[in-house]
Hints:
It is built from ten helices and eleven strands. It has a six-stranded mixed beta sheet with strand order 5-6-8-9-10-7. α2 links the parallel β2 and β3. α1 packs across α10 and α5 packs across α10. Homohexamer.
Amino acid sequence: MPALAEVIAALEDAYPPALAESWDAVGLVCGDPAEPVTDVLICVDPVAATIDEAIETGVQLVVAHHPLLLRGVHGVPADTPKGALVHRLIRAGIALYCAHTNADSANPGVSDALAEAIGLRELRPLDPHPDGATGLGRIGELPEPEPFAEFVRRVAGALPRTEPGVLGAGDPDRLIRTVAVSGGAGDGFLGAATAAGVDAYVTADLRHHPAGEHLETGPDAPALVGLTHWASEWPWCGQASAVLRAAFAGNVNVHVSARRTDPWTIRA
Length: 268
């Protein structure tokens, strides 16, 4: 069975830490690199629900997309929410590794997983790095054009259900062929999506004023599809699981979290 350090090496080969944004906190949060790993749980959020699942499943490693300790801390006492999670992980002998914006920019990465889930092909970065292959967001094409209302239903059917659901903003009859996507909060790329000339832009956490002002720029502005943050990034869990299964076939059991950690739980 591989050591934790070997599993981390496979993850960092797929999602190089050098691709992370300067403000980000990626890598090993807790755990002994020398300890063996037989089971891994992959999730979007390292929260109580997924730590419960990790303990129940008997894994030695949780791979999460979102960092647990994004901002600097001076301690992790067990009477704080995040400190309590660190203590639970250590007591259970479970390591935590986070791949955040490095997984966003990798090729393939978070937005590739979202694009592929909704059926896009011929992918390229929306906000490319100098190499042209890595970068944030993706642009792709549907196999055939379809009305915007049908496209919104396509997106909803491809992603796990959430209480807020999937929202569309645009002419229901507009034909959609080229699409930009960005897993996670992506209204900072509204201008890039418009400049790319796509028909629609799919992302999470769209805010009222930026979205409204975007649509007011004219009839050629991409139609918008709004998702919850968790749903937009959950397809990456399957992608990351494939990385580990390919690297450690037969030696590591890889589990994708089945627990919805989207914070919205009631729809009135």
